[in-house]
């Protein structure tokens, strides 16, 4: 939990590790950039196929109640991220600078949200304990069938395509709210992927065929 990424992983560019899927990198603390990246990804999967999003975010608090969150990082580091990358502060600055909201309106929104959270917490404290029969009720907004296996009509097979080329990925560190991309802008073609899959399967077939012929050529042991 407290191990640095570069020490626990051979590659910290996680968006490139979905072999053979293409991936994009985006600042997950930037609300508008994240919205834009998600919108782009939806357009991509509808036309081309799966894509991976690596959203770079930062956790302010500990991983759990037993994790103080400061044993593997300094308080100064957390404070610096809060001051420079906080998503709420950033979005507030944008809305005010663009004349969408005033400082007082933002303050009112913050007060209303805090009030609603306090009221919900108080209501939860006063509520009766949930019966065990209701434990699994309304876990999902659209509840699935009891059996999960084979509920999806289309089952997809995944192949390992070996080392993915760098051109299959696009690192969007500059993915800003103004960035406009289309699925075609990612240097990755689904046809190329399909051809790659066929080539891999042909190679595997060839290996098995060669192994079989070699085993057939071996003289029988007496």
Automatic annotation (TrEMBL):
Entry's Gene Ontology BP terms: pyruvate decarboxylation to acetyl-CoA
SUPFAM superfamilies: Thiamin diphosphate-binding fold (THDP-binding) (SSF52518)
Entry-linked Pfam families: E1_dh
Oxidoreductase in keyword set: yes
Residue ranges of every copy of the Dehydrogenase E1 component domain listed in the record: 1-130
Cofactor dependence: thiamine diphosphate
Gene3D superfamilies in UniProt: 3.40.50.970
InterPro entries: DH_E1, PDH_E1_Alpha_Subunit, THDP-binding
GO MF term set: pyruvate dehydrogenase (acetyl-transferring) activity
Keywords: Oxidoreductase, Pyruvate, Thiamine pyrophosphate, Transit peptide
Positions of the UniProt region annotated as Disordered: 201-222
Name of this chain's protein: Pyruvate dehydrogenase E1 component subunit alpha type I, mitochondrial
Encoding gene (name): ODPA
């Amino acid at each position: 939990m407290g191990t640095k990424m570069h020490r626990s992983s051979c590659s910290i560019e996680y968006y490139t590790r979905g072999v053979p899927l293409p991936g994009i990198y985006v600042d997950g603390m930037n609300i508008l950039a994240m919205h834009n990246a998600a919108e782009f990804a939806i357009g991509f999967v509808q036309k081309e196929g799966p894509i991976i999003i690596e959203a770079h975010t930062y956790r302010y608090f500990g991983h759990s109640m037993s994790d103080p969150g400061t044993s593997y990082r300094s308080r100064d580091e957390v404070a610096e991220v809060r001051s420079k990358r906080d998503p709420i502060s950033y979005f507030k600055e944008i809305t005010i600078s663009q004349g969408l909201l005033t400082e007082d309106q933002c303050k009112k929104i913050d007060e209303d949200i805090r009030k609603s959270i306090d009221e919900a917490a108080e209501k939860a404290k006063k509520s009766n304990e949930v019966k065990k029969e209701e434990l699994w009720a309304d876990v999902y907004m659209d509840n699935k069938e009891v059996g999960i296996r084979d509920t999806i009509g289309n089952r997809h097979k995944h192949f390992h395509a070996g080392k993915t080329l760098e051109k299959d990925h696009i690192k969007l560190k500059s993915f800003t709210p103004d960035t406009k991309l289309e699925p075609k802008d990612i240097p990755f073609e689904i046809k190329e992927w399909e051809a790659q899959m066929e080539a891999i399967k042909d190679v595997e077939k060839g290996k098995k065929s060669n192994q079989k012929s070699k085993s057939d050529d071996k003289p029988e042991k007496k």
